[in-house]
Amino acid sequence: MMEPATFLYTFLLATFFLYTTLLLLRKRRIPPLPPGPTGLPLLGSLPFLDPSLHTYFADLSKKYGPIFSLRLGSKLTVVISSPSLARAILREHDDTFANRDVSASAFVATYGGNDIAWSPNGPTWRMLRRVCVHEVLSPSSLDRVSGLREQEVWSAIRRIRERCGSPVDIGAEMFLTAMNIVTSTMWGRTLEVDKEREFIGKDFKKVVGDMVGLLAKPNVSDFFSALAQFDLQGIQSKTEVLRGRLDGIFERMIEKKRSGEGERAEDLLGVMLKMERESGDSKTPFTMTHVKALLIVCTVTNLIQHFPFLLGGPNGISKVASLVLCFSISFLWSEKSLPYYSPLG
């Protein structure tokens, strides 16, 4: 009979050889990664990231070529910097590369990624895309609320003109205008009383502003998946609190709509609630969770995309001022006039 110590050594040796063999076979089956910086153990290239990521990646592409890989914590990242490769990935092989990891805060904010931005490619995503393209964001739906958007633009112009001769924070004004446009478009006609609209709008703007800040904040949970459950920075818990406050605002709007108040409303909330009622028997229904997640995503993406890159320094500010002056003088201005104005580029 084999001695226990001998048996243990034999077992460990056999396990080691088996593990090594499987590892070598696995490496042979997996194609090699694109070239890229080695980085540090555990941290990867995180300590070397430049705040101007596009510049940092452009410099790396000069060294490693149009496609390269790097580790950001425990996450493998592949960067494409060639138009032909981008076309191949985004168009020719879109199904293969469509899915991506949801950031920890975005997962909480969108009710578990139940929105068009983060849903995995499949029946649910296709349903959400169909709802957005053909119903919520269709030209006819947007045209129905164009008057609300124009009203908010005129309000912004009046605010700026009233402060003629005094310094004006154009960035803050653009953020306020964007927020007003978003809220008016989503439920502007559900709240028919101006005071009520202003009261709810204030709370909504504060919550969304805080949520945008949390979504944009670097989160250790996004780079080290094993640490996400501990929420070391408290970002997920703070996002959950803000989402709860937004949920309360949405429930209030939905209740008003369902109770018949603002039934004539042609805002986006009305369109989505109609879709939610009509899709109950479909294989992939459009649920109330999808309604709320889309409301959050529409708001946040509008604020992130519309105005941070609009000004482009002092030259951009002077162009905005000229545009505002032009709009102020032209009493015939409407959205249809926009193609006749030069872009702020």
TrEMBL record:
InterPro entries: Cyt_P450, Cyt_P450_E_grp-I, Cyt_P450_sf. The chain crosses the membrane at residues 6-25. Keywords: Membrane, Transmembrane, Transmembrane helix. Pfam families: p450. One of its GO terms (molecular function) is monooxygenase activity. PANTHER family: CYTOCHROME P450, FAMILY 706, SUBFAMILY A, POLYPEPTIDE 4, OS08G0547900 PROTEIN. This is Ferruginol synthase.
